[in-house]
Here is the input.
Amino acid sequence: MPEEAVHIISSGTVRCARLLSEDGTVVVFKGQMADPTTQIAFRKIWSRHFSLNILDALDLDPADNIREFLTIKEGDFVSVGEQIAKREGKRKLSVTAKASGRFLGISANRLIFESDPVDIESRVAGFPGVVTDIVNNRGAYLETSGSYIKGLWGNGKCGQGILLSIDMEKNNGIFDLDSISVDLAGAVVFANTCTDANVLKTAAKMTPGGLIFGSLPSYLLPVAVSLPFPIIVTDWIGTGKISNPVHLTLGENIIKFAYLYSDNSALGKLIRPEIIIPQDEYIPEKENPLNHLGIGSQVRIIEGFYGGELGIVVDILPGNDENSDNMEIAPDQVKICIDEETYVTLPKNNVEVINLKS
Amino acid sequence: MNRNQDIHTVLYVDIGSVNTRVCLFDRMDDKYSFIGAASATTSGDITNQFEYLNVIQAVEKLEHATKRKILDRNQNIVMPATLDHSGIDQVAVSYTCIPDPRIAVMGLTHAGSLQNVYDLLSKVGVKPVAEICAEDGKTVCENLDLFLQTAPRIVIVSGGTEQGAEIGIYRLGEILMLACRSLPKEQRPIILYAGNSAAKKQMERVFSQITDISFSTNVLESGSGVQPTLNGLMNVLRKDLESRAPGFRILREKTKCSVIPGEFAFGRTIRLMSRLIRQNRHILGIDIGAHQTILADAVNLALSLHTLPLGIGNNIGNLLNEYTPSDLQSWISFQIKSAEIQDYILNKSYYPDLIPANKYSAEIELALARAIVMKGIENESLSAILSDGSLAMVFLSGAVLRNVEDPGEALLFAMDSLAPVGMVDYLLDMNGLSGAIGTLAHLNPVLASQITSTSAYLNLGKVIRPSVRSEQPGKSIMTVSVRDDAGNTRKYDIPFNRIYRIPLEYGKNYELEWTKISHNVTIPGVKTWAPAGFKSGCFGLVFDTREEKDGKIKLPKEKAARDKKLQSWRTELGPWLVKQEEESHA
Here is the structure.
């Protein structure tokens, strides 16, 4: 069904949905700061199952209850060499794992294991933003402020880079071999269209951050899908100019950092690609030397009843300083969300900003 | 007292993948009349219960169009209707906006339980995504891999007659239990148990802890057929629907409506319409939606339902998996590059609610619709009824056919893509009521029967397509005479290899008599020794004597000749509103 959404925001609050097409597992929480690679939600299956007969190895009778001999429980992960079952007594026997996997259960006296988990659907943030709403079992909404364009077609890749334009006055703004230079490396470049598969393939050698076209003929879509960087078509499948609102919005954001988000993993559901250009320059979390404590920061509580717990700062409450008229000196406090039901307010000094990814 | 006695105003809602359509019926003097229809775009995401909001948007438009008050100031549907004719008494909903429920089936034998489950699913036009049969001898691990990779949302477990096999059911249950354990709770399927009731208690004990399980009568129960299990399946489909699209739950809670799948509703409509035609004659219903196409064939109240994942909206792109763009050019009568067709298809899949803005795009869409139907009738049972003369009626539905400039385009579309031999009546669903009969049949049978018997559908006309062994183009292959109510008779020579239309007054009764038929001409399914009485449709009587090849209308290979031919056929059929005298050929 068609998506209901604002298609272009030239400047303002950008709110993006990162929702699964069906129920799955959501791994973020409200207030969390997400970076482009943060996984929001996924649907996972274990793609391979195998069974193991322990009767012979433990010299058991088929009538024996094999559960009594297991050293693992259902749902446990076992690694190669880890003990699975043992038999005590005069003849001590044990069975170790020959392959890694998760113990699922027992069927017909055989142990069933599963391995090779695959995400059949996954949503990542695609841009730096704050998780503002959680949709149970489906995903979340993320927000930032800046510019936003909902495109028409994307090749299923995500990426980012400094936004640049080709010379639109030259060759009708068609992305051609002359448009390819070292400037393309790591940049997101927009153009009216491209008509040559070789040009796209040649562009790939410069490892661009992404390409944005107003239109792209259908015969180039398979080539675009095969390329490792994101390509987004904003207006039309075919050959034509980029539309004015898109051109204006992109033009106003030249040399800003643009994030291209395209995801084709939804089952039978079309997800429109998105171009997000945050207002402020984004410093990737792990490179941020300041580790500034702000709303959305991930923190660890240093001591007290909740000592050691991780949480997200949802509010900062300014305290009184020594020069104020108040008799009591109250330090800055932070309100921290530990889980959906647990909020605590603590002195700012009692927490430390952490970065789990670094 | 019949509950329906108190029902005066009925709202039928069809939530499609692109449009949400509402139709209003009113009862006056024990007779329902169709008051009006309106539609809104189906759009939104899971967070805002958009299905309900879209219905309200469509009802707002309906209020405006019919000058009736249906919503209160809080935008809720007023129920029941008040004395000042505000509000609605009854709401019935069908939907096609939620794709395939991905049903997996489990059974002990192919010929027994699984066959009955397949019969059950054919009622709702669903093909299972996975099948686990105890007879297959696969290992537990193989079955788990198969099951999990298809990620079913619903599992139907069947097997064992009453007092019959029980251990086999537990073996299937074990596989299902392991599969459920493998998945996180949110991804676990809903289970419908329709097997030996002796195993029911144990199944409930195990699965009620793990996931949602429902029970229905045993599909193998002697003499029960699949009908009692159908209710169980409908409930499970509704549960799945409401978990995927919470707006439906809001709609159901607020309006106390029944919600059924659009495929089932359309199938039931066609099945009930098969009562209107002669015994042992088929009716073929074609519903071309944005997401899928439904082909429903019914004879003597027996239905065969086929759904194709091809539509003229968001699933139009699948056509490129079935045809090359140059194949799709065949039914377009102007110069167009195959790359342009491909562009058109892809744009349409991304903008499924686009309405053709000019005659060229309208022609492209009808050409693509022809390709979809031609793919659909490749099915063996359907191709048989098109060639043996047993088809009596074709019912056309879908926005692509409803929104044509002239209904003749819809008629020509059907004649081109089906080319059924014999004498066939064509009906067009001009008001989008195709699912209404099927949806309302169990809720309000009076209304359903009245829609069926009134002229809610446009009778396009009767088309006679003879089977001709070989003949010179243009040469007369038969002579017929048509007599009207007043006794006026006119004779017509029917030429070979063209469309020959005899314009008649719409809705009047006529009698067709076969005066002369060439020895190399037969009209399967038609008693040519007896006159045939009929009520004229808007295109009167049409003879389609065009040449065929492999059961399909023969098109010239060369593009220019083909374009000319397509244009000449359009001219031969002519527009709907044509004066009888102008077109007289006698």
Q: What stands out?
A: Chain B touches chain A through 47 residues (CB under 8 Å).
